[in-house]
Amino acid sequence: MTENNRVLLVDDDCDLLSLLSIRLENGGYEPVRAESGEEALAQVELARPQAVITDLRMGGMDGMALADCIHRKNPALPVIILTAHGSIPDAVQATKNGVFAFLTKPYNSRELLSQLEKALRVSGICRDLEETTPESWREEIVTRSPLMEDLLSQARLVAESEASICLRGDSGTGKELLAKAIHKASPRSKQPFIAVNCAAIPELLLESELFGHAKGAFTGATRDHPGLFQAAHGGTLFLDEIGDMPVALQVKLLRALQEQQVRPVGNTSTVSVDVRIISATHKDLDAEVRDGNFREDLYYRLNVVILEIPSLAERREDILFLANHFLHTFRRGSKKNIRGFSAEAIELLVSAPWPGNVRQLCNVVEQTVVLSTTPIISAKLVKKALRQQSGQFPSFADARRQFEQEYLAGLLKITDGNVTRASRLARRNRTDFYKLLQRHTLDPADFKPAKSQ
After folding, report:
1. pLDDT in the model for residue 101
2. Which residue in 49, 201, 15, 174 sits closest to 120, CA to CA?
3. Which residues, by range, are in coiled-coil regions (predicted)?
4. Range of the structural domain that residue 304 is part of
5. Which alpha helices (H) appear in 160-308, and where do they start and end?
6. CA-to-CA distance for 133 and 155, rounded, in angstroms?
7. How far apart are the C-alpha atoms of 208 and 156, rounded to whole Å?
8. Which residues in the chain show pLDDT less than 70?
9. Claim to verify: residue 194 and residue 295 sit in the same structural domain
10. What is the pLDDT of residue 2?
11. CA nearest to 277, candidates 183, 208, 187, 211
């Protein structure tokens, strides 16, 4: 039996629970039993079932309440309700609450197995296709965290659709890795996956990179350039750090998504494109929309489905698991006989705050492997790597924010707090300059020279 066949059965009647278990085993499933709704909630976390079959009327928490609790944390987990007290209103209400199927007792075993098969198919776990479509789509994502497993279940479900997806999470959590996994699980998997970091390309070049340009469109344009939209035709375009895209370019992106056409810079004709958009950001886009930094119409175009990636601190059960995975990878490259981490080193790894998330953990493990001269990596090496990683690698957004603040403060010092002169030196209009000062909580009055007594 595999985890892909695991089904949680919930009923406060032990005899019926045993009978249902036998029928599911005969159908090729692995039943996990719970005799109450409260016990079932614990089993959802422990057993990680792929579907839940529950009685409606039970002492304590009933089947509807159980389904509601399950879907708050696991919206993609299908729930089938069985009851001897079924009625049309109950069935309608259950469907509205997200219950996959509502069957009355005495139930037909064939119908139950049919509904279960459909439930697994809808949730992205089709047993008939298990041999031809293994879990290779997510093989690069190393996890044993329930939070991540729930996220991957949702990702597998939305991969089948054409809906635009926005991935939200801190820097280093693996947004591009998840985007690639979604692409591999989608019908577009045979077509290109193209990734672009919107924050890493200067504004003047980003339009050309996305939409292409014609020969002679600007200085240095010595040939036609198709752009990334055309390169991703038929596949997936991953727009990382979409929250940093300039507002002027957001208008052109929205038009391209609405019309499914792009117009290369310097060209008068358009080119049809067929791409699935996955975007990502570490910013709060809702706040960016309120502040006028991100277009509301583009926001709704991109945020059809939102997937939140947990930070490494929220999935601490993965820290040692990931550390050993990276250790195995880097050990092969170094040709060192490193067997693992000391107990003190493990304690440091598991308890560290990890502001840089999985990317920082990977860097820490690589550094300790390079510097280790013993088979067991010491706590001293881990502590040194943690200190250096935390100090040397601020995020791009943090580094830019710090630079802007220091730059603006320097201008105000030079001009003695004169905003007109400071904005002229910065080559920004006065209104924009004031907005920048407000964003960084800088008051020009604080930079004016003190009046002599």
Report:
1. 75
2. 49
3. none
4. 146-308
5. 175-185, 203-211, 228-231, 247-259, 285-290, 296-302
6. 16
7. 33
8. 1-4, 76, 85-98, 121-135, 389-399, 450-453
9. yes
10. 47
11. 183
Tokens of 426: 């910065």
Among the candidates 123, 157, 183, a domain finishes at 123
pLDDT for 360 equals 94
- List Cα–Cα distances, 239 to 141, 194, 199, 209, 322, in angstroms: 20, 9, 10, 12, 26
CATH number (domain holding residue 18) = 3.40.50.2300
- Which contiguous run of DSSP H or E holds residue 430? helix 430-439
**pLDDT recorded at residue 90:** 54
Q: Sign (positive/negative) of CA torsion 336, 339, 345, 350?
A: positive
Residues constituting the chain = 453
| The pairing of beta strand 271-272 with beta strand 261-262 | antiparallel
Residues 70 and 105 reside in one and the same domain: yes
Note whether 321 and 304 are same-domain residues.
Answer: no
**Burial class, 118, CB count within 10 angstroms (exposed 0-12 / middle 13-18 / buried 19+):** middle
Question: Do the Cβ atoms of 227 and 267 come closer than 8 Å?
Answer: no
CA 232 to chain centre: 21
Residues 336 and 356 in one domain: yes
Amino acid making up residue 302? L
Q: Is the Cα dihedral 46, 47, 53, 57 positive or negative?
A: negative
Cis bond before residue 355 (omega within 30° of 0): no
CA-to-CA distance for 208 and 282, rounded, in angstroms?
Answer: 24
Return the residue matching tokens 């389904």: 67
CA distance 36 to 60: 7
Please tell me the predicted confidence (pLDDT) of residue 87: 53
- What DSSP element (H or E) covers 193? strand 193-197
Last residue of a domain, one of 123, 155, 179: 123
